[in-house]
From TrEMBL:
Protein name listed in UniProt: dihydrolipoyllysine-residue succinyltransferase
InterPro entries membership: DH_E1 (IPR001017), THDP-binding (IPR029061), Transketo_C/PFOR_II (IPR009014), Transketolase-like_Pyr-bd (IPR005475), Transketolase_C (IPR033248)
Taxonomic placement: Bacteria, Bacillati, Actinomycetota, Actinomycetes, Propionibacteriales
Source organism of the structure: Nocardioides endophyticus
Nucleus as UniProt keyword: no
Reaction catalyzed: N(6)-[(R)-lipoyl]-L-lysyl-[protein] + 2-oxoglutarate + H(+) = N(6)-[(R)-S(8)-succinyldihydrolipoyl]-L-lysyl-[protein] + CO2
Amino acid sequence: MTNVQETAAGTLGRSNRTDLAHLHCEMLRIRMFEDRAAGLYRDGVIRGFVHLSVGQEAVPVGTVAALRPDDVITSTHRGHGHVLAKGLDLTGAFAELFGKETGTNHGRGGSMHIADPGLGIFGANGIVGAGVPIAAGAATASLLRGDGKVAVSFFGDGATSTGAFHEGATLAGDWRLPLILLCENNQFSEFTGTHMSAPERMEARAAAYGMSFHRIDGNDVQAMADAMTTVVDAVRRGEGPAFVEAVTFRARGHYEGDQLKYRDAELAASWAERDPILMAEAQLIAGGTSEAEIAAVHASVSAEVEEAVATATAAPEPSTGSLFEYIRTVASPVVEADLPVDAEETRYSRAVKAALRQSLLEDPEVFVAGIDVGEGGNVFGLTRGLNEEFPGRVRDTPIAEAAIIGAGVGAAMAGMRPVVEIMYSDFLGVCLDQIMNQAAKLRYMTGGKVSVPLTVRTQFGAGRSSGAQHSQSIEAMLAHIPGLSVVMPSTPADAYGLLRSAIAEDSPVIVIEHRLLYEKAGPGFALDHLVPIGKAKVLREGSDVTVVSFSRMARESLVVAEKLAGEGISVEVIDLRTVAPIDWETVLSSLAKTNKLVIAHEAVSDFGVGAEIAARAVDEGFWSLDAPVLRVGAPFTPAPYAPALEKEWVVGQSNIENAVRRILAITP
């Protein structure tokens, strides 16, 4: 049953855990910070976008007053108030806006991306609504650990239209997460005024997600603190997620420089009379505080802000040599042992399950989540039985890919090692923001303050008439994103070892399996078997031509090489295993030996991994080349459904063999 609370000043009484004088001071710090930021932006000191929350200060201050220091928040592009209320240092915040090395995030985040996970600040976010699934992930970590923490996701009324918001809220409702969705209804979604029926829509949405609903006067800081204390306590007790609508007003434009031509002057004037700082000061005076005492607080906070500006202004810029810092964590060295000669052969699918099971056994911070991975055991049966063996740690999700990845990101930021599954790699497009703009960039944008030990499992493969939306090879798109590693194993041993290494990695790894290999067998392995990410393997030594491939095509290339060996043609076959980063040393060393290079992959040739390898070969390996580099890949069309057309489209052994014969026919 939805609980609707209409909360105004004094309705819930005064909390003993809050003090109006303290709340007033905290609001002043935010207001004066933003007033100075506005002037510094105008003067060209701050170069990037600046979105101010002037007029909304009571919402973050009142909310944080109800939180513990170890509770988590996610913020928005308009996030200064949230992060400062949560304890962010003023000097570090100014330095971050200035792009200085001493900034909160060493100048890598700026105004829209400022974060300090050590303070429970899991990031302001330049993508509207994107923080909701991440906060759900932090709440998931709390739920699994039973540590009593609460997560709060701040967002504007406009964010409630986004898919990320809906998916994150759906997941929170389904899993009964300790999460508070806090909508700052500031009357504007960028340049568009909030519709008059928006409050009713907010309440209805909360009911649909199975959440309690609370509407609070977002300009009365004491009312905000009191109401949020009640909400937070209920969520912390395990009563499920809550939806809070804080009704407030955005006094300035969507961004600094906004001409406000859409703004109604009478509306702005009416809200100006309810400025949260003026309201708090009126309450303080009514309670016996003198105007002189209030003036003294203004002077003290102003001095603090000016000192922070001066210190930040004098701080050094990041050094040019630091450009590549904070992209990924430094991986621990991995030694790949020889496979035991007496081990029984195993299937690829069983190797994947064994890797998941062993990681769940060894590390309580590992959990598995995805569509049908629990009771259904995965669409291919790979996780069957794991939910019974590890109750609560193999979790079925709604069909909500953005929430699946986002929750993985948030849980990883909280120190867990989530393994999340996207059923088909084609579906990664649905959640690309959470992969590309969140998982891959958060370590960089926080200046190394956070690690994201997230493993994303998915699969691909053409040849079964699955059509254009279930057959794509999109590894090149993922490999193009700085901050991600992408692995594509071809054998059961590599599937096991690479997945185990990915789970142990402190940065995000995409593991792309091939569904046509699931029932293929290969040599067995020991339970401690690991394969280093970024290290290729020479499957067969050769001297006439090098064939570089990965996943299914590596196996096909090996078959071709064995066949051609009967004709006296010596083909060296390299299985990349990792397509980002590529093991350039192994590839270029082989090219230096054979002087001819063929690259084979299942994806379309145009703009693929093969194109990148060919470019590097022409650049760094130019003097080794005795022939043009040849690529084997699918035609540049979507994958067809009709079996006759798909047979023409899918590349395999004959295409690789033809390329080898063609390149050998070229005489230098």
